[in-house]
From TrEMBL:
Residues that, per the record, bind Zn(2+): E188, H260, H276
UniProt-listed InterPro entries: Dehydroquinate_synthase, DHQ_synth_AroB, DHQ_synth_fam, DHQS/DOIS_N, DHQS_C
NCBIfam families for this protein: aroB
Domain 3-dehydroquinate synthase C-terminal: 187-334
GO CC terms in record: cytoplasm
Lineage of the organism: Bacteria, Bacillati, Actinomycetota, Coriobacteriia, Coriobacteriales
Protein name, per record: 3-dehydroquinate synthase
Cofactor: NAD(+); Zn(2+); Co(2+)
Primary localisation category: cytoplasm
Free-text remark on how the cofactor is bound: Binds 1 divalent metal cation per subunit. Can use either Co(2+) or Zn(2+).
Keywords noted in UniProt: Amino-acid biosynthesis, Aromatic amino acid biosynthesis, Cobalt, Cytoplasm, Lyase, Metal-binding, NAD, Nucleotide-binding, Zinc
Keyword Cytoplasm: yes
Function of the protein: Catalyzes the conversion of 3-deoxy-D-arabino-heptulosonate 7-phosphate (DAHP) to dehydroquinate (DHQ).
Length: 370
């Protein structure tokens, strides 16, 4: 997938494009010039990603006429907190960024979430650019405007909806992605197939991407890499379609939370030691299992989901007790007073939102684990 393509994202607050291609990092500055008139751009990245791509991005921005600074934070979900946010904000102030300037988030989901939140609250809002470097952030967290930090009570409990001026997805950077993170990311991709696309589901079933890449995902053929690029683009198209209709998760956008009600609970209960994609995968299987028991979805649909998740070497259940899952799930954003919204698979390619009382949800969770 060498040619640069774009996917439009149109929301009430802002419209922008997601640029998808390979090996175009050295041209990002040129693409930004017509999008904004910022004088300064501050790159926010982590200590894993910045040494790999910071210099290249800085040079591209400098060549395009921007004055560039950078902030490097520790990697990992454990650092997506108020302390790191405070550090970023103080550094932005020290660099004297103004409302005309911008933050460029260079990294995976953690960097994108916290840099996005910093852009929303610094000076009550400055421009944001996303340059995702993990498969998961390419297909999910960099699209749609969600920003967040974690609180002690749970994941992503403080944040905003802040749309970027542009998103730049360069698939060539996946060559440096840790194999464990690469495999973990497929949890979110499988989710897209379940909620919206039978054709994508068929492709993922008949052309298992983890098996095709083997132990080293960098060794795929040119055809493999093209197919991976097309899968990424399709996931972006699905998310764009959903968030364009419901920017702030008042209705339709909630379908993107399939697997997350339990997945986020697993993450929090495990102190974020298990990857987000893996937790979502386990959450999808748990939801399907409990939904089948309650006759909310068929046993066939349940088995299709569990079997494909397993074939991608992702977890299909959790050892965390149901009462612990209930505790964390009911402290999540999906709770509404004395009820909670749960996304249920109707069949592959279609889901619906089921509102449950907390007592119903507690009973539902008792059938979730294998």
């Amino acid at each position: 997938m060498n040619n640069l393509t774009t996917v439009p994202v149109s929301t009430p607050s802002h419209s922008y494009k997601v640029y998808v291609g390979s090996a175009f990092y050295d041209s990002i500055g040129n693409y930004l010039v017509p999008l904004m008139k910022a004088t300064k751009i501050c790159i926010v990245s982590d200590d894993h990603v910045y040494p790999l791509y910071g210099s290249c991005i800085t040079q591209s921005l400098t060549n395009a006429g921007y004055r560039v600074s950078h902030i490097v934070i520790p990697h990992g979900e454990a650092h997506k907190n108020i302390q790191t946010l405070s550090f970023i904000l103080e550094e932005l102030a020290a660099a004297e960024l103004t409302r005309d300037d911008a933050i460029l988030a260079l990294g995976g989901g953690v960097v994108g979430d916290i840099a996005g939140l910093a852009s929303a609250v610094y000076l009550r809002g400055i421009k944001l650019i996303h340059v995702p470097t993990s498969l998961l952030s390419m297909v999910d967290s960099s699209i749609g405007g969600k920003t967040a930090i974690d609180l002690k009570a749970g994941k992503n409990l403080a944040g905003t909806f802040t749309q970027p001026v542009g998103v730049f997805v360069d698939t060539s950077v996946l060559a440096t992605l840790d194999q464990k993170l690469f495999c973990d990311s497929w949890g979110e991709i499988l989710k897209y197939a379940v909620i919206a696309d039978k054709n994508l589901w068929h492709l993922l079933t008949t052309h298992n991407q983890v098996e095709r890449y083997g132990k080293e995902h960098t060794q795929g053929t040119s055809q493999d890499l093209h197919q991976l690029g097309e899968i990424i683009k399709r996931c972006i198209e699905i998310k764009s379609s959903v968030v364009s209709k419901d920017e702030t998760e008042g209705g339709l956008r909630q379908i993107l939370n399939f697997g997350h009600t339990i997945g986020h609970a697993i993450e929090a209960a495990m102190n974020f030691e298990q990857g987000h994609g893996s937790c979502v995968a386990a959450g999808m299987c748990c939801i399907a299992r409990a939904a089948s028991h309650e006759n909310l979805c068929s046993a066939q649909t349940m088995n299709e989901i569990i079997n494909l998740v397993s074939s991608y070497q992702l977890p299909t259940t959790t050892n965390i007790e149901a009462n612990v899952l209930y505790h964390y799930a009911t402290h999540d954003k999906k709770r509404h007073g004395n009820s909670i919204n749960v996304v249920i698979p109707q069949e592959i390619g279609q889901v619906y939102i089921q509102r449950m009382s907390l007592d119903e949800f507690k009973a539902f969770l008792s059938y979730a684990r294998a």
